[in-house]
Write a structure and sequence with these properties.
Chain lengths: 200, 212
């Protein structure tokens, strides 16, 4: 009995300590994000899922919104002002908080295109100078460092991003993505976005 | 005067016809077959100046690399003597003429090293590179790769090579290179890679990754 009591107390203290280091789900800073990015930060309509995203990537994107390098219409309309008052330490804590939430796949692509999308993701199409996505984004599209996790992001979001690079948006210096995306045709974009929406 | 005008008109028509012809030819030729398009494809992963890139995997520097080495490695990927999930697909569509054009292009690029290696063991790395480790049967790297790490013929340039790529190759040499039954030049390096400890590998990798 005494032992169970001790375990219970330890558990309460541990959970109190762990929430003290991260944000509570209902903190104002988190709510300002999840208002658009969805319950549990799983993404909602045009706002991408943040749950499970690489923290370095989230921070690099906050920076690119602040510096107006990420310049597609929705970013301009929503994110430029959303991050304007965000200090570096809050950005760091938010990025780590969202990264720690287990991501759920959107599952909203065309399932009949998924296997074609997987082939393009893994092998590219060397004859058409389309590079393998796997080389940078990893075997399960999990991302690494500031290279984003793509697995399970919404079909609409992946499709829009790939199209935007082809249209000249997001000209981050040193990023290979404008070059990588410019070789993709509409069918390849459809297939990749469909496949990725199902990746767990 | 009139003749001059007619001549000018004729010349401008000719110029238009020629440029239209050139334009049509440009559009007819699929981008996939051009050297420029293929170079863009290589540089998407290997760095926009061929300086290498860190994706999920480290993509090696190709800038300044020996053309014979690039050609030999592309052949090794095609013949599965060097195992790599991405590069076999990349290599098998390249014609011999395309391979030599690509190798020649990368050989003449000279961007600064990618950087990012830990600094602590550079001095030890330089000593191993210049003198080897006689007690461990490790010859001086400089004997084959050159005092400045520029390589020669099929022996690769190491100067400016990415640190994580060097570490990965030297620690996994026999798992990636010299696969199958055919013996290739990678066999020369196998005992040396085997005889280096992990910290010695890291030291040499750090040293060469900083060389211009």
């Amino acid at each position: 009995m005494k032992r169970i009591g001790l375990i219970a107390i330890t558990a309460v203290v541990a959970s109190a300590v762990s929430t003290a280091f991260a944000f509570a789900d209902d903190s104002a800073a988190v709510r300002n994000c999840t208002w658009c990015h969805g319950t549990g930060a799983q993404g909602y309509t045009v706002a991408p899922r943040l749950a499970g995203q690489r923290p370095q990537y989230i921070m690099s994107q906050i920076k690119s919104f602040r510096e107006h390098a990420r310049d597609n219409p929705f970013s301009k309309q929503y994110m430029w002002s959303a991050v304007a008052a965000l200090g570096p330490s809050t950005a760091y804590e938010l990025a780590n908080y969202f990264a720690s939430i287990p991501p759920k796949p959107a599952n909203d692509g065309d399932s009949s295109l998924a296997s074609r999308g997987r082939t393009i993701f893994m092998d590219g199409i060397p004859e058409a100078n389309i590079v393998s996505c796997y080389a940078c984004h990893g075997p399960n599209a999990e991302g690494i460092r500031d290279i984003p996790r793509l697995g399970g992001l919404a079909y609409f979001y992946i499709k829009a991003r790939l199209e935007q690079w082809g249209q000249g948006y997001h000209s981050t210096p040193g990023s290979p993505m404008p070059m990588a995306a410019s070789h993709l045709g509409p069918q390849e974009v459809e297939a990749l976005a469909s496949y990725l929406s199902f990746v767990k | 005067m009139r003749a001059g005008l007619r001549l000018a008109l004729a010349a401008s028509f000719l110029a238009m016809a020629l440029s239209a012809g050139a334009h049509a030819q440009e559009r007819r030729a699929p981008a996939a077959s051009g050297l420029e398009a293929k170079l863009e494809y290589c540089k998407t992963c290997h760095g926009l100046q061929g300086q290498g890139y860190l994706g999920y995997f480290p993509m090696p520097r190709l800038a300044g690399q020996q053309p014979d080495y690039i050609e030999a490695q592309l052949r090794a990927f095609i013949e599965r003597r060097r195992s790599n999930p991405v590069m076999r697909n990349v290599a098998h569509v390249l014609s011999p003429a395309m391979i030599s054009s690509l190798a020649n292009h990368f050989h003449h690029l000279n961007p600064p090293p990618f950087g990012g290696a830990p600094r602590g063991a550079v001095a030890i790395g330089k000593r191993i590179y210049d003198e080897g480790l006689p007690e461990a049967n490790v010859p001086a790297c400089s004997a084959c790769h050159g005092a400045e790490g520029k390589g020669q013929n099929e022996i690769p340039r190491l100067a400016g090579q990415l640190y994580p790529y060097m570490v990965g190759q030297l620690t996994g040499w026999s798992k990636e290179r010299g696969q199958g039954t055919a013996v290739d030049t990678s066999a020369i390096m196998a005992p040396t890679a085997h005889n280096l400890t992990h910290s010695q590998v890291e030291a040499v990798a750090a040293y060469v990754s900083n060389l211009q």
